[in-house]
Amino acid sequence: MRNNDHQTLVNQQFSEHALAYLASSTHADGEDLQRMADLVAARPPGVALDLGCGAGHVAFRLSPLAQQVVAYDLSSEMLAVVEAEAQRRGLPNIASQVGTVDNLPFADAMFDWVVTRHSAHHWRHIVPALTEMRRVLRPNGTLLLMDVVGPGLPLLDTWLQSLEVLRDPSHVRDRSLAEWHSLLAAAGFRTVSLQKFRRRLAFGPWIARMQTPPAQVAAIRSLQHIAPQEVADYFALEADGSFTGDTVLIAAEIAAGRS
């Protein structure tokens, strides 16, 4: 039986696996998280929104650097995990709010920082989401966007998106850097810095985290086995299915005249 809509599918996928994302070393660590913290720490403490917070790893890292952090997610089950973990860690300045990214229940110019990590590739309505992010940012605020990025070349892009959606049917798109530049500019942002990273995904935990059904796992492995050499080289495909892809940290501000 089909899900009613994409939002329902996203909520179902992540609500069922909230604890797995809390325990995931891929999400709990990473050079991008440290670079994010460095950027935030360079300014006086402000109010931050962790958009599509998942299990809360960004919120936990922001908490000592901010006056307040709002952990925001579509999944109430994810937010329950964030609340419990924040209490366990003694982080009282983390609040939670459930909702969608394209209709934020916050006042204009409320946040000094809007941060999102490994969430945007699930967003179906990306333009309204970016518009909302600009609306809730203060004029001197900063958007920090971290996500997997597509390679930009059609051959490589097709293979990456295929593996992603087989593993997780709530996946929408790993956008390329060119796509992000265009989308951000159209939404009224200007990019002030960009840092690229390579991230290895161990196949076993990658599959287990989403509890991908055996039929889809077999399909992923089948695609990997027949991948042309250019694909195998770019993604550093390993015998067990592990592979390496690209991620990015984009810092953007509201463009002049677009407040």
Radius of gyration: 18 Å
User: What is the chains' assembly state?
Assistant: single chain
The shape is globular
Instruction: Please report which band the strand proportion falls in: under 5%, 5-15%, 15-25%, 25-35%, 35-45% or over 45%.
Output: 15-25%
Q: Round the mean pLDDT to the nearest integer and report it.
A: 91
Count of helical regions: 12
Largest sheet, in brief, is: 7 strands, mixed
CA(first)-CA(last) distance = 45 Å
Strand tally is 7
Q: Could you state the order of secondary-structure elements as H and E?
A: HHHHEHEHEEHEHHEHHHE
Low-confidence runs of at least 5 consecutive residues: none
- In which order are the strands of the major sheet placed? 3-2-1-4-5-7-6
Structural class of the secondary elements?
alpha/beta
Helix content: 40-55%
In short:
By secondary structure, the protein is an alpha/beta fold. The chain has helices at 6-15, 18-23, 25-28, 31-41, 57-62, 76-89, 126-136, 154-167, 177-186, 203-210, 214-225, 229-234; strands at residues 47-51, 68-73, 94-98, 111-117, 137-149, 189-201, 243-254. The radius of gyration is 18 Å and the shape is globular.
Describe the structure.
With 259 residues, the protein is an alpha/beta fold. It has helices at residues 6-15, 18-23, 25-28, 31-41, 57-62, 76-89, 126-136, 154-167, 177-186, 203-210, 214-225, 229-234; strands at 47-51, 68-73, 94-98, 111-117, 137-149, 189-201, 243-254. Helix 6 (76-89) links the parallel strand 2 and strand 3 (94-98). Helix 8 (154-167) runs antiparallel to helix 11 (214-225). The longest helix has 14 residues, at 76-89.
